[in-house]
Structures are given as structure tokens and as C-alpha cells.
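Progress narrative, Year 2. Work on ABC transporter ATP-binding protein from Halorubrum tibetense advanced from sequence curation to structure prediction during this period.
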Amino acid sequence: MSATDPSASDEGSTTADDAPTASGGEPAVARDDTTPTDASDAADAVLALSGVDSGYGEVQVLDDLTLHLDPGEIVCLVGPNGAGKSTVLKTAFGMLTPWEGTVEYHGREIGGMAPEDIVREGIGYVPQTENVFGSLTIEENLRMGGVARTGGLDDVIDRLYDRFPIIDEKRDAKARTLSGGQRQVLAFARALVMEPDVLLIDEPSAGLAPNTADDVFADVQAVNEMDTAILMVEQNVTKGLGISDRGYVLDQGTVRFEGTPEALLDDDEVSQLYLGG
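Result:
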């Protein structure tokens, strides 16, 4: 266990020409084998996955998956259970090695690198569960998150306390005594100790009451305002897309639709097939 991580067949497709037009904006774009991927849009991306196959043991989960994250964006991955959303994050973070395809950070190949090396590159990861050390205090959790820093740890922790006062007030409390929302804030702060410019977040609202979830989504936006691009998996489709710049709908390990939140939420086919509409 590293100090940076306390946790670790195609259906028929719709062509882009068949994608219904969403009211009030650009249509959601459907992907199939003839649809141009967004690789050409990823030249300036901070993170880009291109043609990625990945999985667990002999079980393939991701199938020719291509997506990207631009500087300063929040991008949300949505779709049915088992679509491969969390596997995207684990592959990007080095917890899984891609079988095929590339994972690039600022144009440099990082696919297959160890998670601790990816953290040093500038990517943070907040898993859905086991994302803090319950037996350690808030202060100790933050310091564990910064063991790879070469200096400036006290200063960055002070800035994080300023950004997230709720953990400042409880800095000597054991993490196991925190509420679900407070633990999530600590997990964000812990991942930010290394000052990443990309943060991968897996279902930040999972298991939280609605009011607490709203607070956590506000914290996600606060993290984004710290010049951190965010690739997020979220079960609450409306809330997740509501704070995002773009979204991807995944199914069976590949991108089925992509577009703005408005386009995805207004698209009848996307809503009925994938978003519970």
C-alpha cells in the first residue's frame, strides 16, 4: 500500500448522423466505428486516453476507449453500472495497465507507470472508498499525502486548511470520526497536497445525503478553481453533469455519446437508454 493510495462485446451503435439534436444547443454525438474520435481535439489535453483496452485478469472491461480532458475542465463520466467508468480512472492512474492504446499526460505516455510515479507527474486520485486513513488524524492524513514532496509541505497544508475550513477546525481529530462529507473533503485535500493539475474522482457523492452531496459538489468546483482539471465518475447524473463542462456516456467499456451537459441531458435517446430517463 502506497502513502498516496490508502485503498487500488459491442452492442449495435447509433451513428453520429442519427443522433437526435438536443434543444437549445449542440447535439450529443454518438460514437460508432465510423465516427471520428475526439483524438484530434486532444492536442492540448492534459490527459488523453486513445484506443484503450483494459481490464482485470483475463476479463476485458474497456474496449477501444478514447476520451480526453482539457486544462481547467470538469468532465463527467456517466453510464450504467458495469460500463467501465471506474476502470477508466484506474487505468489512467496506473492501477491497471492498458492492454492496447495509449494514456498520455501533457502528451507524454504514462500508461503502465506505477501510481506513485503518476502522482509525481501531477495526477491525483480520490477513490470511492478507503480514500483516507481512519486511524490517523486529519493532519497526519495530509502529511501522508505529501511524503513524495521535496519541500513546501507546511505551506501547502496551510493553504488547504484555508480552502477547506471544516478540516482546519478538526485537524487533530481521527479521520474515522468524521462525517461522510467531511471525509470526502479530507480525501480531496489529501490528493491535493502534491498540487496536481489533474484530479481523478470516483463517485464523490456515493452514500451521502442530498444536502451533504450538494456540499461535496461545491467542493469539487472549489478544487477545479485551484487550476485543477477534473475527470469524475458520478452516479448522480444530473448533479454530476450540472457542474461539468463536458460529459461522456459509457456503455460496455466504450464511449457511446459525448457532448455538453445540456446536450446529453436533453437527448431523448441518451436519457432513455443510459440516464434512467
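The domain at 20-112+239-277 is CATH 3.40.50.300 (Rossmann fold). The longest helix spans residues 210-224.
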